[in-house]
Amino acid sequence: MDTTDTGERQVSSSALADSFARQRATVLARWSARVQATMASRTGPLLEQAAPVLLDEIGAQLAANRAGANDIAPDLARWLGPGRHGTRELALELQLLRSTLFTALMAEQALSAHDVELVGATFDAWLLAAATRSSAFPAISDACISGFAHDLRNPLSVASATAQLIGLKSDDPGVAGLAGRIVKKIADADALIQTLQDAAVLDGKTIKLQISAFDIMTLVEEVCVDLPLLGQPVNIVGERVDGHWCRAALKRALENLVTRARKHGKRAGPITVRVQRDGERMRLSVHNHGAPIADGDMERLFEPPQHADEIALKGWSLGLPYVRSVTESHGGAMAVDSAAERGTTFTLHVPIDARAYAAT
Questions:
Q1: Based on the domain organization, do 4 and 119 belong to the same domain?
Q2: Torsions phi, psi for 267 (to 5 deg)
Q3: CATH number, domain containing residue 61
Q4: What is the pTM of this model?
Q5: CA neighbor of 132 nearest in space, from 303, 310, 314, 297
Q6: Are residues 123 and 7 in the same domain?
Q7: Are 196 and 148 in contact (CB under 8 A)?
Q8: What kind and span of H or E run contains 10?
Q9: 3-state class of 59 per DSSP?
Q10: Domain that holds residue 269
Q11: Per-residue confidence of the chain (360 residues) as pLDDT tens digits?
């Protein structure tokens, strides 16, 4: 019998696949009822035709005991039809389907962390592929995307903080390990939300700056405060610089750089965030130790990916193009230095007073 050692128990992939096959029709019926109860104004789910295909894909992954990601956005657009869908509604339907499926499976047998990750990977691939293909979604406003992201990120932040506390307070290594897995999956979900936000900003639009006066060092401390809890050493160096910038945009830009430093740098090596005054300009840099950026990749760093698989499989994202756009919107410029002996440093040079650029 095919088994996978998760470190917690031996899981039979064939038994789980059989359980899934038995539950498939029930899951679809319960999911449809939940969607209609949640969205009473509609006659049926938007994903009514797509959901069975998604479940068939998960069934195949379970039978093979592996996770996979298919590019399904064109079919999703065809199933939905023009004008019948919105980002928020589709995400909610996927969330309800995921929840209904897990509830049904756990009613028959306990699921290991491996099971959860395997099923969740397919849901993540669907959401990511659909979110990064304009053919799957109509044009929606920046305000709608921001509201959608805000609504999702609040509970995600609470869940992540709670999981971190559970891991810190428990003496059971198994509990601490599961808490760490939860934190990682929440971070993955947050990255998907960030992709949606960045895509909206970079879709031929100019970033609208909301300028206010603040100390840039307080923003740096706010972004970096949770890094030690995640096991990432961090050094914050430099001086406090008061200026006029768009706080929300610079915060998202810095979060992008810090996230990239965590992903691509050495976990044992600290991330260094430095703030410096340079005449009438402010210099904000993020440095990490690790393998240098390859020459071929350096040329593409600031180009938005064209396909979902570039994000899901090759590690590209919209983060750096967004950071550059924020920097240039403030009247500044962005630089990158990467070498094996020096590590990698991304630097933002922006005017200390960017109020003149808010109206342009």
A1: yes
A2: -65, -30
A3: 1.10.490
A4: 0.49
A5: 310
A6: yes
A7: yes
A8: strand 10-12
A9: helix
A10: 211-358
A11: 333 333 333 345 567 778 888 888 999 999 998 888 887 656 778 888 788 888 887 887 777 765 444 444 435 555 554 444 566 677 788 888 888 888 888 887 767 777 777 777 777 777 765 555 444 344 445 555 555 565 566 667 777 778 888 888 888 888 888 888 888 777 767 766 665 665 555 554 557 788 999 999 999 998 888 777 667 889 999 999 999 999 988 988 898 898 888 888 887 789 999 999 999 999 999 999 988 887 777 766 766 554 444 444 344 455 788 888 889 889 999 888 988 889 999 999 999 999 988 765
User: Whose structure tokens read 């059971």?
Assistant: 172
Picking from 121, 138, 155, the residue at the C-terminal end of a domain is 138
- What's 276's domain CATH number? 3.30.565.10
Strands (DSSP E) contained in 229-341 are 234-238, 242-246, 271-278, 281-288, 333-339
Count of the separate structural domains present in the chain? 3
Cα gap 315→334, rounded to integer Å: 21
Q: Which of 95, 123, 138 is the last residue of a domain?
A: 138
